[in-house]
Amino acid sequence: MSADRPRLPVSLHVSLSPGDLPHARLLLPHQLRAFAPFVSEIVLTVDAGEHAMPDLAPFAELIAPFRVRCPVWNLRVADHSSVRRRALGKALFGCNRSVPHRTYRRGPCLSYYDGWAATTQPYLFHLDSDMFFGGDLGGWLDTSVRLLNTDPRVVTCSPLAGPPRSDGTLNQSDLGAHPAIAGSHTFDTFSTRLFLMRRVDVVTPSPPLPWSPASLRNRLRAYLDGLPRLDLPENLLTRRMRNLGQLRVDHPGPGTPAFSLHPPHRNAEFYQRLPELITRAETSDFPDAQRGCYDINEALIDWSPQIAALLERRWWRVLLARLNPFR
Question: Is the pLDDT of residue 327 over 60?
């Protein structure tokens, strides 16, 4: 812990799965180096689905060197029990429905809500396992906690979405700056990839989250796949934010601009160059073409095969293929 910066009343939560190990072997230590000295609790939720028990040993090995950097650790398996699902439905949505295991995209649903509820500190900082970070993250955390504590309109904070250009700009449209923080950007949308917020607002929200279905297109997709039709967690949290007139504030913090970076895909080149990408994030060393961008782009990794594959899997092509009786 920094000698001049007290530990904050924040739980760091990282969402993991056994399939994340190829990148988590390097990215989880990167994330822990960034935040463990400043938070009061670290919770790691490993999810292998409702029918499997993941092996925690590889994750325990990864965090072992960092245990001295934070006083409280909780390496746990996501609880998919019917009792837990019903309890979360009551706490989050104020209804007697069970939180689904998965979203209609087959992504995490129960494991998110379950992991967030397993934290104990007044503030919760969640991140997905594939996120990169750079800049003065301790200063960013301190500024964010103070902002959440003083401005009731601000419900969540994040670092800047990508390393900023030399003039501080980013490739994104926002609602303007927050008057209390230079270089900030405000939004009325929520992201579950990473967020800092008051724990109560995401574990026992009042008013509760809306139990809202996905769009018609995605409900049809869910029906064909036999998956739940509940909307994605980030969309439900966005809807609640807008109903209450609340804001998300992305800001650089008081020192070297704090930022996050996200890989839109994963391929062999990404895994091969992962150590280099982590070093670039930790030293804020990026080519000009990457600056201002939240997603790692072609200035660093050639994503063309993955982009071509996505174009072949446009939703309407997938839907037509599933409806074709002669396939």
Answer: no
Residue 67 in domain: yes
For the stretch 241-262, pLDDT in tens is 999 999 999 999 999 999 999 9
Q: What is the pLDDT of residues 217-242, one digit of tens each?
A: 889 888 888 889 999 999 999 999 99
Question: What does residue 156 show for φ and ψ, rounded to 5 degrees?
Answer: -155, 150
The H-or-E segment that residue 134 falls in is strand 132-134
State how beta strands 41-46 and 185-187 pair.
unpaired
Q: Is 309 inside a domain boundary?
A: no
To the nearest 10°, the Cα dihedral for 37, 40, 46, 51?
180
The CATH number covering residue 242 comes to 3.90.550.10
Is residue 184 included in any domain, yes or no? yes
b/e map 15-40, b = 16+ CB within 10 Å: bbbbebeebbeebbbbbbbbbbbbbb
Residue with tokens 């060197």: 65
Instruction: Give, in order, the Cα–Cα distances in Å from 198 to each of 10, 105, 319.
Output: 9, 27, 40
Which helix (H) or strand (E) segment is 161 a member of? strand 154-161
Place of tokens 């790691």: 44
Q: What's the total number of domains in the chain? A: 1
Rounded distance, CA 92 to CA 89, Å?
Answer: 5
Domain containing residue 101: 10-301
Question: Residue 44 forms beta bridges with which residues?
Answer: 14, 75
**Domain for residue 149, yes or no?**
yes
